[in-house]
Every structure is written in C-alpha cells, then in structure tokens.
C-alpha cells in the first residue's frame, strides 16, 4: 500500500476517535452539571486539554460551561474542535474512498451531513444531549461498518492501528495530566468532590457502568487505576488498546515478511501491561508508569510513520 494511502486511513481513524473522545468528555461534564447542585468550574475546566488552555484563556474570561462547550465543539480558534475533526476525517476518507466499502464511505458522509448544520450554529445547552449522541453515533456506525464489511487487509489494519493509538493516548492523557493526583490520595477520607472527579473520569472513558458491574458501585482509586490500565476486557484500557495495536502490526509484519521496530515497541509495552507492576501498590509509581507509557506511545506513532512511509 502507498504511504499516502496508509496515512489517510490512519489519520481518518484518529480524527474520528479524537472527536468521539472529546464528545464523551463533554457528556461526562454535562452529566455532572445537570445532576450536581454545586458550582465548580474546576470540574468543567478538565474538559480543556492543558496545551489548549493558553488559546482558551486568550479568548474567554472564565471556564464556564458555555465557553468550554463552544471552544470544544465549533470554535475556529481551536483546531481540535469536534467540527474540524469530523471534517478532516471525512476529507481523508474521500481521498481513499476506493479502498473503503460503500458502507464505510456512506457512514462518513452521512455522519458529516447530519452534524454539519448542527455544528455550524451556536451551541445551546438544551440541544447538547442530542448533538453529543449524534457525534457518538458517528464513531459507532463507522466502526461497525469497518468491522462488518471490510476485508481484513492493509486498509482494515491501518484503520484499527490509528483508532487504538488515539484511544490509548486519550486514556493515558486523562490519567497523566488530569487525575493521577486525585488517584494518589494518602487519606482514606473520600470527599464529595473526590467522588465526582472519579465518576467523571470513568464516564469520560465510557467505563462508569462496566466498572460498577465489577466493583459493586464502590469507588476505590486503586481499583479504578488497575481497571483503566490493566483490564483486558475494558475497550479503552491501555492493555486492551495496545494488544489490538500489536495484533494489527503483527498482520502487517507477516504480510510484508519484514521485521518492524514498531511491532517490537508494542510487544515490549504489552509486557509492562501484563507484569502487574502497580496492580497491588497504589502509589506514586503510577505517575511514572503513565508518563513512560505516553512516551512509548508517541515513539510508536513516530516509528509507524517512518516505517510505513506515512506522509
């Protein structure tokens, strides 16, 4: 496969996953704002990534829910707003449409057509739940059509690699930059604000209900950490995502009869995710562990770009 085609497939999947991840975080924040009587901008501020806060502060005076929503959904000054991400995903998909099934192409076009008009307008809180559902449905329909209609060939595997690199990066980013401090509480006393943060953390990764099934609705920071890092049943855990990346890189390695460094990086990372290095000890090793994982994930992306001649 030509490098530029692989690049379009890879980034098409990453942009869609990134848009969906942002939508899930907004949904989690919205749930808190609706169900809680407290006014706490800090719990809304978490929606904006650290590297975007400089841009945000230049334009907005405070982290109100209205300002944050506008910034994340359709603010032109934010290149990673949901509208822009969906548009870039569709553009990449159009370039490689001959490599996609009709169902996959239609899912991209229909999702863009159904959300474009909505996202062009000012966002109103009353309409937000429907908007978020449409955005989340975009990712669901896309992945379903890919999994249900695509040949298990290069096209399929580059899409999957892009999806799970973006997804694992999102999980690691949330743990690394937002919540590792509250998961490292030395005190056994759990405040209402701690509980809310943990709930938003799980909801932003679509893990709230599945974690409750396993834990019996008891929120324990060590259990949350291990669930989001090591649990191979959880589709957004680091272990699950890296295992999928490893599997898809293994296919490409076998197909092209080459040894790829990217495969070895993913393999070594998987070893650290099955060793249980911090499963039994909930301490400051978590921060270093997540930081190291984030660096490995970035190295994996760079190596894939180089080895497969992505643009």
Q: How would you summarize what this structure contains?
A:
The protein has 14 helices and no strands.
Report on this structure:
The chain is an all-alpha fold and 311 residues long. It folds into two domains: 1-150, Four Helix Bundle (Hemerythrin (Met), subunit A); 152-311, no CATH class. It is 71% helix and 0% strand. The protein has 14 helices and no strands. The protein has helices at 3-35, 42-45, 53-59, 65-73, 82-95, 102-120, 128-149, 154-179, 192-204, 208-215, 221-230, 238-256, 261-274, 285-307. The two termini are 13 Å apart. The model has no long low-confidence stretch (mean pLDDT 85).
Offer a few descriptive terms.
311 residues, 14 helices, mainly alpha, Four Helix Bundle (Hemerythrin (Met), subunit A), 2 domains
Order of helices and strands: HHHHHHHHHHHHHH
User: What is the number of E strands?
Assistant: 0
**From the helix content, strand content and strand pairing, which structural class follows?**
mainly alpha
- If you compute it from the alpha carbons, what radius of gyration comes out, rounded to the nearest whole angstrom? 19 Å
Strand content: under 5%
Number of domains: 2
Q: What is the 3D form?
A: globular
**Largest sheet data:** none
Mean pLDDT: 85
Cα(first) to Cα(last) distance is 13 Å
- Flag low-confidence runs: none
Helix segment count?
14
- Share in helix: over 70%
């Amino acid at each position: 496969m030509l490098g530029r085609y692989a690049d379009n497939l890879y980034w098409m999947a990453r942009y869609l996953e990134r848009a969906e991840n942002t939508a899930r975080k907004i949904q989690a924040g919205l749930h808190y704002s609706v169900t809680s009587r407290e006014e706490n901008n800090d719990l809304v501020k978490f929606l904006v990534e650290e590297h975007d806060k400089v841009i945000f502060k230049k334009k907005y005076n405070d982290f109100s829910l209205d300002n944050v929503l506008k910034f994340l959904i359709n603010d032109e000054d934010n290149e990673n707003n949901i509208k822009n991400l969906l548009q870039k995903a569709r553009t990449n998909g159009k370039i490689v449409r001959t490599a996609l099934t009709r169902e996959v192409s239609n899912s991209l076009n229909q999702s863009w057509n159904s959300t474009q008009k909505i996202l062009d307008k000012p966002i109103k809180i009353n309409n937000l739940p429907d908007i978020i559902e449409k955005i989340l449905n975009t990712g669901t329909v896309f992945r379903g059509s890919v999994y249900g209609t695509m040949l298990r060939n290069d096209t399929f595997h580059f899409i999957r690699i892009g999806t799970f690199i973006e997804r694992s990066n999102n999980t690691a980013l949330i743990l690394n930059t937002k919540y590792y401090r509250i998961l490292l509480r030395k005190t056994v006393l759990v405040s209402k604000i701690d509980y809310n943060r943990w709930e938003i953390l799980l909801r932003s990764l679509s893990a709230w209900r599945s974690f409750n099934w396993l834990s019996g609705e008891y929120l324990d920071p060590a259990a949350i950490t291990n669930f989001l890092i090591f649990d191979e049943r959880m589709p957004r855990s680091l272990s699950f995502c890296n295992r999928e990346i490893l599997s898809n890189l293994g296919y490409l390695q076998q197909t092209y009869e080459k040894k790829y460094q990217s495969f070895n990086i993913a393999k070594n990372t998987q070893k650290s995710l099955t060793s249980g290095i911090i499963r039994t000890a909930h301490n400051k090793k978590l921060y270093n562990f997540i930081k190291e994982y984030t660096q490995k994930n970035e190295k994996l992306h760079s190596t894939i770009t180089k080895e497969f001649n992505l643009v």
